[in-house]
Structures are given as C-alpha cells and as structure tokens.
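Problem 12. The chain below contains 174 residues. Write out its predicted structure in token notation.
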Amino acid sequence: MDGSAVLDPSRVPTGAAALWLQLQEVPFSPRGDAADELDTTQGWTPELVQGYTDRVLQRLAQQAPDLHDRILAVDVVTPPQLARYNPNSVEGDPYGGSLELDQSFLWRPLPSSGRHATTVPGLWHIGSSTHPGPGLGGSSGHMVATALIKQSRRTRRFGLSTTRQGSGRGHRGK
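Solution.
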C-alpha cells in the first residue's frame, strides 16, 4: 500500500491501494515520438498526456494484466506543471539543477557539508542538493541514518554524549 494511504486513509478507498509511477526522463519540450503515434508539435497537450499515459500503463499492464480493470483514477504531472509547482525544478528537472562536477558529489551544496551535518545540533541536511547528488535513491538519507545509528551505538557502548555534530561523525562531548 502507498504510504499516503497509511497516513491519510481518505486518500485511497478501502480495499484499494495507490500506485505512484515517476518517470524522470520525460522531456520538458517533446520533439517527437519514436513510435510516430503521438503528436508532440504543440507540447504537452491533454491529448499528448493521455496518449503517453496510455502507453506507459500498457507497458505496465504486460506485467499486471488486470491493471486497466483496477484503475480508479490517474493524475499526471507534466514537466511544465512540475516547473510551475516548484521553482527549483527548472524546466521540470527532477534532479535539482546542474549536474556539473563542481555541483555534484562532495561539493553539494558546498564542500564543508559533505557529511550532511549542520551547525545546528540534531539537524542534518539531506536531499538531491547534498552528497552523493540527485536522484530518487534516498542515498543521502541512508547515509545520515547510518551515521546516526553508528553514533547511537558509540553512545551506548562508551557512555558518551553526542550533543554536537560538527563533521557528522558524532563528536564526543561530556
């Protein structure tokens, strides 16, 4: 079941579930259709959205044959809509901007924050603007969770306080 239904049961009918598909490589301004079936000349028109959605669901239905019979509603957010909803999503970019080397890896958002710790005790910085960079893998959150678990183990093992974060290594203070 989709987490949104667990947190807010009114979002999904009883006995049903929500499925979220996120296609990250959809063009902001489509220039053509490799199958030559969809008209892309006017951008993301309702007809293009419907045709593209039908194509995606048909591919999915190859693995879930009763999919079409079970769909109650479909909501599509196109790249231009995403850009309007989120000003950080330049031209619908789901990755948070530039992927140049000086904007990636340890340098996101700046070299001193490569370990996700901030100067505010208990506050960690995660997301596509942090190491290891953009995408949906959840790597930055996993890295912080791992650091917090290690910090907690050290605290229990050695009886140390971890009130400061500094480098994110769980500074030991009394």
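Discussion. Confidence is low (pLDDT under 50) at residues 163-174. Students who got a different answer should revisit the alignment rule from Section 12.3.
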